[in-house]
Amino acid sequence: MDAVFHASPYIGYVYPNETIIPWTVMIVVYPYMTGLVAGAFSVSSMYHVFGMESFKPVARFALLTALCFMLFVPMTLLLHLGQPQRAFNAMITPHLTSAFAAFGYFAAFYSILLMLETWFAFREDNVIRARNATGIRRSFYRALTLWSDDISEKALSFDHKWMFALAIIGIPSAHGLHGYVGFVFGSLKSREWWGSDMMPVIFLFSAIISGIAVLIVLYTLVSKIRKTPIDEACVRGMAGALWGFLMFTLLLEGLEFANVVYKAKEGIEVIMEYVTGPLFYRYFVFQFGVGAIVPIIVLGLMFMRSVRGKAFIVGAVICSLLVLMNVFLMRWNVVIGGQEIAKTMRGLLTYQDPGGREGLTAALSVLSGPLILLFILTRFLPPWAEMSEEPEPTQ
Amino acid sequence: MKRRPGKGKTRNTGRRAFLRSLGKAAASVGAALVGGAGMFGHSSTGRAAVAKPAPPEIPGYDWNKHRWGYGIDANRCIGCLRCVEACKAENDVFLSAHHFRTWVERYVWLDGEERPRVDSHADPGNIAASGSEKQFRFDNRYRDEKVYKAFFVPKICNHCRHPSCVSVCPTGATFKTDDGAVLIDHSYCIGCQYCVQACPYGARFFDPRTHVTEKCTWCYHRITKGLKPACVEVCPVNARIFGDLNNQASDISKFLRENRVQVLKPETGNAPTCFYVGLDKEVS
Amino acid sequence: MTIVKYSEYGTRLYSGVYQQTAIVPGMPTHILRLLILLGAFLTTALAAKIFFTDESFYRYGHYRGAAPAELAVGDPQFRGPGYCQNCHTERHTQWNAGVHKVVKCEICHTPAADHPATGKGKLPIPADTVKLCTLCHEKMPSRPATQPQIVVKDHPYPHEDRLECITCHNPHAPSIGGLKPAVALAVECVGCHGADGKGVGAFPALVGRDAAYLKREMQKYKSGLRQNPMMTPLMKALSDRDIEELAKYYAAMGGASTEAPAAPGAADVQIAGLTAKCVGCHGAQGEGVGAFPHLAGKKTDYLIDQLKNYKSGVRQDPMMTPIAKGLTDEQIERLSHYYGKLGDKSAAAPPDAVAPPAASTAPVLLTVKCVGCHGAQGQGMGAFPAIAGKEIAYIVDQLKNYKSGVRDNPMMSPIAKSLSDEDIEKLAEYYALLKTE
Fold first, then answer.
1. How far is it, in rounded angstroms, from Cα A304 to Cα A243?
2. Which of A95, A150, A387 sits opposite C30 (nearest CB)?
3. N or C: which end of chain A has fewer CB within 10 A?
4. What is the pLDDT of residues A146-191, one digit of tens each?
């Protein structure tokens, strides 16, 4: 075995073993992707549970997006593990006292739920495609429909009932999954920066905004590629939700920081040194300022001034991109930031990209995986609501 | 209900086998729940209700007869770092300045300074003094300074009674033995490093050779043979004390009886079984 | 041409249509198949979980019950002094009686592990004792005051001089009360007898000599029974206790050097007649008996000198004087050559011995000849003047004066004559730069 490790530079005093930061950018991407899943699922359930018609154009697309990201979430952890081939040990003998142990079950449960929801949402389409196709394509769609081509009124009623029920279960599951990811950090008492009761809630709300933002971006992008008109009401609905949740997220994050500062427990000196020093731009300027306050103001102004048409779409997409950056920075500042403050409370470390399978390149590759999968999946399961009655044959 | 002998015996075999396997599954789930509940409640009596299984097969050793404890008299430590070197040699610990099962810190207050200057032998200045990451010595950087107060503090895994590393392990690869040691099952560890994060004392590290987590075992292969941990064995000034808390005549019992001891970071609730004499409020 | 019903999902959601549909009764086949698939998956997963759960898991808690026993396997590397004692009994006895008994063997000699069972050979003897000993004994602010500590740069023979701590200190049984003055006293001896006490030129070796012999001879110098322009004043300055300490110190320094010499190859028959007078006290091979010193391996020049001293009466001894007076100068030379060659110590010197100063040497090594009188730092001692910090030109001039005979002194003249001009300049530069505190 090669013995490769990456020690981080530090100032002050840190425990000798701390100089190797255990969790890298992979563990930043892990909650980021989980958050996108939870957020995207929330968008789909706006239609599937609450029947909000304006979300209809993206409802099934959101489901596929959530599914694609979900399938890549375990990849981040597997790449991080020292012994990935033993990953199932956590499922064979899950340790109930560990916030990490349930992840396998949570993720498996939620993945299945997502697949079922998707299966029901696309079943009718698939039956029609199976009927219209020949050869391998026909066999493929037949298999996808479990060799049943019952799309009678009664069968569809059943499907929709199940979809509704699954979405009802899915909302708490998605949010539970993500709140739980926050709990993974919040339940640790060893780090002042993490050990907070608000962590799960903050993670949850930032998940929702990231999911909405990614859908705004992907939906407009896909519409541009497919040269189909963008449903402005849909974007407006999503942007509205984004605006509301974003304010709530900012409030929670601000409260969390205020809690740390006002309580001023042991180690506050080093935390203040950190947030006013290395963290200043990452935290105050980009996460809070550019990533949250700017989109809130821009979106608010656009709603106030009743901006419409292309200008609104462009504004919403830019705000969404800023929010995506905000959420990524929030994950970074929590995961990496927490580890940059030494447990000794007398020193600060500086994270350096380790490269290799846990490095930034690998992380970005994993992050692009769901997008590629989504591109492929939409070839086989076009989620567009305005789909023609005759499914267009893919060349 | 009484089962009539002979009748329906063969017919029922399949069903009974199935029921048996179901029972086994239920038992294992039940055991998991009981074990888990015990851990959740942090109760020491959780397992007492169940009959105790035979101790692990360690020749000449019964872990039910021992309860180990560790003591550190920081007043005595001379910072020679023989303990660190011995630990690395005894346990084949990765030889670098970033992987230690035990280490020594130096606290120095200079005249007029409110907070101490802290370093360990892993500090670049000290590595320069020793000439290599594989050797250990403290440089004499405060030789010409006006020193107000100064001392060394040896650090080691605290083998806590409520170890946060054990509670966060997702698989059960790390555990607390009945005789008090917190150990790692290297063949079961998945290398997630959650325990490295959870330890408030920085006592754990990820071994880049084996890709699993490592930590102090109190030299479990020594103490089960009646020897002392290597660091205790080599300490020339008896700053490190180890022994059986069950034995009133042991070094550690004597140490606890004769001193008023402290533990590190008591506010974490981890309840270390590594007891200190000669700590300062600034030692964390 | 079928209407895509999914698009009607939203409009029908709260219209009451779905509310009339049950989830389970009248289940269509595709849902049934889906449930069977799910059930199969769950059963497989559960079976896998049970199958892959280690048999010993949950035995003692939430972990593999076999793990503790596995972790208890392994041979200790540090075996403890008791293990070393099995073979190194004498060392162990010496060590165990001294203050260093808290410093276990394996701290300095690395863990024994399976030594000597495998072909690993010997455990290392620390090469750089200055580095090793200062780990514990360098004066540091954070060390407890009870720990014996030295300020390295102020200590005689600091590291820069490349002399080892063990030159003066016995690592196995250093003595804090008794040895320290001896070490300080020895400073006066090393000028002539060498830093290692093994002798320099015509000056005899002291190490390994019997303590009783050393003590007796030193007392002779002190009382005037034995006379020597260098030794007499030095010994007169010592107390009886000092003499005893010094004798013990040098005797202890080379404990093992009195080993029996190899049998002479071609024994000179004639010599046998002469040695008959010696062997009674000094042993058949000149190895020394009890308080009688060994002769074998002594420097030939030294033996000649001493025998002639006895003969001339410069040195007096009730036993040696009459014997020496009975020898011709030629016999004295033959005897001295014989014993000088017997067990040539330079050939049998232990590999770790400090190398004798080479011809062209660093000034620090030349200072061996000075420090005995002028002090470790050239600071001067008693009547001997300070030389540290003097002008280079002055020191050069004076040494050259001694050498050429312009200046004459029974101690300085022979030393200066032994120095090359280059050595003189090196020494002068060295001392000129040494600052007196």
1. 12
2. A150
3. C
4. 888 888 888 888 888 888 889 999 988 888 888 888 888 988 888 8
Chain centroid to CA A292: 17
For A196, what's the count of Cα atoms within 13 Å in the CB-facing half-sphere? 23
> Using the beta-carbon criterion (under 8 Å), do B220 and C72 form an inter-chain contact?
yes
Cβ–Cβ < 8 Å for A268, A279: no
Start and end residues for every CATH 1.10.760.10 domain found in chain C: 159-253, 269-344, 363-433
Overall average pLDDT of the A95-117 stretch: 88
With CB atoms and an 8 Å threshold, state whether A128 touches C2: yes
Best of B193, B209, B283 to substitute, by most chain A Cβ atoms within 10 angstroms, is B193
Q: Does any CB of chain B come closer than 8 Å to the CB of residue A132?
A: no
Alpha-carbon distance B93 to B86, whole Å?
10
- Residue B28 at interface with chain A, using a CB cutoff of 8 Å: no
> What local confidence, expressed as pLDDT, does residue C355 receive?
38
* Predicted confidence band of residue C270 (pLDDT cuts 50, 70, 90): low
Q: Does position C27 have pLDDT exceeding 60, yes or no?
A: yes
Q: What's the rounded mean pLDDT across residues C405-425?
A: 82
Contact B199 A190 (CB under 8 A): yes
- pTM higher than 0.80, yes or no? no
Q: Which of residues 135-164 of C touch B (CB under 8 A)?
A: 135-136, 138-144, 147
For the segment B112-140, what is each residue's pLDDT rounded down to a tens digit? 999 999 999 999 999 999 999 999 999 99
A188·B197 Cβ contact <8 A: yes
Instruction: Read off the DSSP letter of residue C99.
Output: G
Q: Assign domain C159-253 to its CATH architecture.
A: Orthogonal Bundle (1.10)
Residue A332: alpha-carbon gap to chain centroid: 14
Helix (H) and strand (E) counts in chain C:
22, 0
Decide yes or no: CATH 1.20.1630 for domain A29-123+161-380. yes
Please tell me if residue C131 touches chain A, with a CB cutoff of 8 Å: no
What pLDDT sits at residue C21?
66
Q: Is B220 on the interface with C (CB under 8 A)?
A: yes
The answer to ipTM > 0.95 is no
Query: What is residue C263's predicted lDDT score, i.e. its pLDDT?
Result: 38
CA nearest neighbour of A21 among A181, A187, A178, A191: A191
Query: For domain C363-433, which CATH number applies: 1.10.760.10, 1.10.10.10, 3.40.50.2300, 1.20.1530.20?
Result: 1.10.760.10
> Touching check for A22 and chain B: CB below 8 Å?
yes
Residues 253-292 of A with CB under 8 A from C: none
In B26-146, DSSP assigns E strands to 68-73, 102-110, 117-120
User: Domain C269-344 falls in which CATH fold?
Assistant: Cytochrome Bc1 Complex; Chain D, domain 2 (1.10.760)
Using alpha carbons, select from B108, B132, B111, B113 the residue that is nearest to residue B122.
B132
Compute the average pLDDT of residues B50-68: 89
The residue type of A224 is: K
Q: What whole-number distance in Å separates Cα of residue A91 and Cα of residue A126?
A: 34
A117's tokens:
């929801």
β-pair partners for B212: B207
